[in-house]
Write a structure and sequence with these properties.
Layout: E1 4-8, H1 13-29, E2 32-40, H2 41-44, H3 50-57, H4 65-84, E3 89-96, H5 98-108, E4 113-117, H6 131-139, E5 144-147, H7 149-152
Parallel strand pairs: 1-2, 1-4, 2-3, 4-5
Helix pairs in contact: 5-6
Bound molecules: adenosine-5'-triphosphate (ATP) and manganese (II) ion.
């Protein structure tokens, strides 16, 4: 049923609680686990210039290396947990608009299930779903399992 499961992560606690569900399904279906972190350049556009944003989108971080390190920690955390359970894993970091790059990744890598949090790092529960989750649901046709931290415990 599922061969490649995508876990988009922003390193938040809610994204983390989605990982349990993703790994459990991956074990059952012997699926590969893909961990993706998108460096959100929209949210950085107020503090950085256009040139710096272009460089980041091309993977040149310069003095923004810590942004890349945070991304690597988030995907690494998912991948480590998956490897502990003997699962095949792929880690990926890109930069741009999170939901667009999540949708592109699904297409380009033949993902057949997405498992993600209902909310993320912003921490403010003003909406039923965080904007990245809502937009991902609107931009893809593959099934998306949305995990809410409050309901998963
Ligand atoms: P908002 O960002 O709309 O203010 P929020 O931070 O609470 O609200 P989202 O950003 O939609 O909610 O996060 C929901 C889920 O989307 C996260 O648990 C994670 O699975 C995924 N996600 C969010 N941001 C990213 C990102 N930059 N890269 C990869 N996955 C992400
Ligand atoms: Mn967010």
């Amino acid at each position: 049923m599922y061969e490649r499961i995508l876990v988009p992560t922003d390193g938040s606690g809610t994204a983390e609680s989605a990982v349990d569900h993703a790994l459990d399904l991956a074990e059952k279906y012997e699926a590969e686990v893909h961990a993706l972190y998108v460096i959100d350049t929209d949210s950085m556009s107020l503090s950085l210039g256009a040139e710096q944003l272009d460089r980041i989108e091309q993977g040149q971080y310069g003095e923004m290396e810590e942004v890349r390190e945070r991304a690597d920690r988030a995907t690494g955390h998912v991948a480590d947990r998956a490897r502990d359970r003997g699962l095949e894993t792929v880690e990926h970091v890109s930069a741009g608009r999170p939901h667009s790059l999540i949708a592109d990744y699904i297409e380009d890598n033949d993902i057949d299930l997405v498992v993600m949090g209902s909310h993320g790092r912003s921490g403010i529960r003003r909406a039923l779903l965080g904007s990245v989750t809502e937009r991902t649901l609107r931009s893809t046709h593959v099934p998306v399992l949305v995990v809410d931290i409050d309901k998963s415990e």
